[in-house]
Structure formats: C-alpha cells, structure tokens
Amino acid sequence: xxxxxxxxxxxxxxxxxxxxxxxxxxxxxxxxxxxxxxxxxxxxxxxxxxxxxxxxxxxxxxxxxxxxxxxxxxxxxxxxxxxxxxxxxxxxxxxxxxxxxxxxxxxxxxxxxxxxxxxxxxxxxxxxxxxxxxxxxxxxxxxxxxxxxxxxxxxxxxxxxxxxxxxxxxxxxxxxxxxxxxxxxxxxxxxxxxxxxxxxxxxxxxxxxxxxxxxxxxxxxxxxxxxxxxxxxxxxxxxxxxxxxxxxxxxxxxxxxxxxxxxxx
Amino acid sequence: xxxxxxxxxxxxxxxxxxxxxxxxxxxxxxxxxxxxxxxxxxxxxxxxxxxxxxxxxxxxxxxxxxxxxxxxxxxxxxxxxxxxxxxxxxxxxxxxxxxxxxxxxxxxxxxxxxxxxxxxxxxxxxxxx
Lengths: 265, 129
Known about the structure:
The complex is a heterodimer. Chain A is 46% helix and 11% strand. Chain A is built from twelve helices and eight strands. Chain A is globular. Chain B has eight helices and no strands. Chain B has a single domain (3-101), classed as Alpha-helical ferredoxin (Fumarate Reductase Iron-sulfur Protein, Chain B, domain 2, Orthogonal Bundle), CATH 1.10.1060.10. Chain B is mainly alpha-helical. The chains are: A alpha/beta, B mainly alpha. The interface between A and B is large, with 45 and 38 residues.
C-alpha cells in the first residue's frame, strides 16, 4: 500500500528521528510513504477564523496532491495532522471556504475534501492492524512501563478529528501493548503541555508539564511517548530528565529490530 | 452602528459562534488549563461578546494565555466553542496595525538550540499578522 506522506517542517529539522523511524518501520510493515513533492508548512496551528483562507492553502495543496495521486494522505506530526484534517473538513463541509479556496487555487478540477487524512497511528490500527504489528515485532519491549502522552491535537475536537475517544483514548495504549510493553494509564495523558505558549509564557508551560509528568510517574510510568515535536520539546525542557520522553516511532523501530539501522544512518 | 457593536459582530462572524447559546454552566472555565492565568475567564468571555464590551477583551491578557487546546470546545454542552471566540478577539487585535503580541526582533532571545520549527510557526500564526 502506498500513501502520500506529509512530513512537515519540524520532521525535516528538529524532529528528524520521528520521521526516519516512521519511514523504516513503514517499509518493514509493508506500506510505503511517498513524500508529497513541494509540500509547504501547514502553519503549525489550525487557523480558526472562518475568514482565514490564505493560511489554509498549504494544506489544500497537499490534500489535492494526494487526491491527484489517488492516495490517502498520511502524517506523523500531531500538529500537521490536526491542521490538515481540519482544513479537509472545511473543504468538504464549509461552502464559503471551499469556494474561496478553489477560486484562489484555480485547479483543473476543484478540490472538495475527497482525500482521506490518516495519522500514522491510525494506519497502524486500521490498515496494518495491531495484531499484525504484534506478529512482526522481533524485539518486544518487555518490562517497559510506558505512559502514552496524547496531548490535545490528535484528540480534539473529538467529532472532527475522529481519532479516538477524546476523553478516554486507547489507541496509543494498544500500540504499546502491540510492541510488547505495558501501558500506564494516568489522568493527565490528554491534558495540554502548553503548546506554543512556551515561547512567551515559559512558567505556564513548565507548570503544565510538571503536572503531566508527576501524574505519569505517580502511576508508575518509566517513560512517555508522544507523536508531537512540540510536546516533546516542552516535556523535555521542563522535566529535568526525570522521565524520558520518546517519539512513538522510535519505540516502533526498536520493537521491529530496526533502530540500529536508523541510528547508523 | 457603534464601533463596539461592529466589533462584536466581527467577532461573531470570524468565530462563527452564537454566544447566545451559552447557558453559563462554566464547564469551559472548569476545563481550561490556563484558567488561573486568565483575567477574563472563558465563560465570561462569552458574556463580554453578548454585552458588546470588546475593548475589555482586546485589552485582556487572556488572549495570550489561551493554548488552543480545545478542551473548552470539546466539553461545551451547548457547542458554543469559547476557544473560537477568544481566537476571533485575538484576530481583531493582531489585525490592527502595531498590535502584534510577538515581534520578529524579540524571537532570537526566546529560542534555544532545541526549539522546534513547529513552536515558531505556531506562535507566529497565533500572535501576529
């Protein structure tokens, strides 16, 4: 199976690990990530204003490219996923945005939200299947107690993201089980890390991350996993290295016995 | 039309929110991780728009404390989406000349070697035009 792949700005720079581990693991699991040519940054946050058109066009271009290739669009970064999925919903369901974006884009055929947007975790759950993944694990991460850190962007707004139950998600815990480790469920796993606020209101983000990490450690987690480079940055910056934080793709590659191959690159 | 009335209309238009649907249950404020830092709380924000007191919102530090975490949007039983109202008020401010919350010149001092690109593009989009 071949997917259109939108890596996003951070996966080409500060979060190259998140990207590399995702690609080698995909190959081992029998699906291919074909990078969209000339993709542009999604902007990091979804432009909430109903009159915001130009700020949504980068997503529309990527979505339309996937449509022209007849492929589903896959993202790994939580933020890219959030932005592109919501813009796709606008293109499908909001007449004004669809009309204005298409008037601007002048495509051969108007884009009307035809592309399916999938997060890499959804590919693992819905396309590969966690049972299949489990069979392909050569190096089960036995004995590791892992807290899934969901944050905000993958889950909310729940009806629109349709990723998992926004208040009681299970996808990352199921992933952790599939790679042979033990998930730790803790109350703060879907609370915000502070996001972009850490740029100007560092103290606020520090306090939020402290609560998340205390909550996870208190319930017995040895480490946290995330899909978001900004969550990773905020959690690492504010936890004094007490609780290691790792991209979920790194553990996936490790469980598939591919980590060394990537690390040598 | 008075300016404040016009600005209230603009907030409703940009956000697509009907503040009159609010039944003042306070669940948005109870869910908000930035509640303690906000001078005008999310449920009060809705009332300010209804009362067309937009200048107070424009001056409120709440605009810069909202995380866009969508907890209020998710949990609102009336689908009022207070986070979208806050964003619309933020838009009204940053779209005015000279009222950006983040200036290009201050960025070098705010970043460190690990700062992800995502942080900068997100902050630029929320804090300035």
